[in-house]
Amino acid sequence: MTLVVGLNGSPRRNGNSATLLDQALRAAEASGAQAVRLDLAFMDISPCKACEDCFADGECVIRDDMDRVYQLLEEADAVIVASPIYFSGMSSCAKLAVDRCQALWARRKVLKRPRKPGAGAIILTAAQPNAKFDNAVSELRAFLIGIGIEPGEVLKVAGADSSSYAANHPGVLAQARELGSRLLSSLSGP
Ligand SMILES: Cc1cc2nc3c(=O)[nH]c(=O)nc-3n(C[C@H](O)[C@H](O)[C@H](O)COP(=O)(O)O)c2cc1C
Questions:
Q1: Number of domains the chain is built from
Q2: What is the pTM of this model?
Q3: What is the pLDDT of residues 107-138, one digit of tens each?
Q4: CATH of the domain at 20
Q5: Which range marks the domain in which residue 24 is found?
Q6: Which of 3, 48, 72, 157 is a Cys-bridge partner for 99, taking CB atoms 3.0 to 4.6 Å apart?
Q7: Residue 126 gets which letter from DSSP?
Q8: Helix 92-100 vs helix 134-146: angle between axes, to the nearest 10 degrees?
Q9: Is the shortest distance between the CB of 159 and ligand 1 below 6 Å?
């Protein structure tokens, strides 16, 4: 079965990122996929130590909840990363997990161990109406490419100044569902 893994980079379990990620994952499930959401803020994830031991075997020396993240990201047919914008970038809990994926980057780029084809999407929310998304998009695209996932659609939601903004805007919810459906369609080719 097709597996879609959603990474929620917000410390709000029911905030904008989580709400939109859920919509996208539910749409993927409606298309026949299995969906798993990981709330990174509530997982035990230490920072990358930059020891470079993963360059030798693709394995991280740290044992924590990233073990589950690595396994799911490697099994995933599609990955959706959702994060609030914090100081013009992704959230800190998203960045912790992203940096720890240096081990998956090492498998791809250092050890030349390709993974099966995978498709990715990004969901970003920010409070300011004219919020800056470029940094987070650039970093999360690099993350997806680094772990062997082809980055695709990006949903940017500006003006989300309360945690219930997305939930109260049906048009935005629909955009997230469409992102999830299109992501699934992209897996079966043109
Ligand atoms: C530490 C912190 C930094 C933030 N920095 C920005 C920012 O640079 N630009 C912006 O538009 N919103 C910023 N925000 C607002 C959040 O991006 C916004 O409220 C977002 O919708 C929250 O998403 P969530 O409900 O998924 O947590 C910041 C919020 C926090 C807590």
A1: 1
A2: 0.98
A3: 999 999 999 999 999 999 999 999 999 999 99
A4: 3.40.50.360
A5: 3-187
A6: 48
A7: -
A8: 30
A9: no
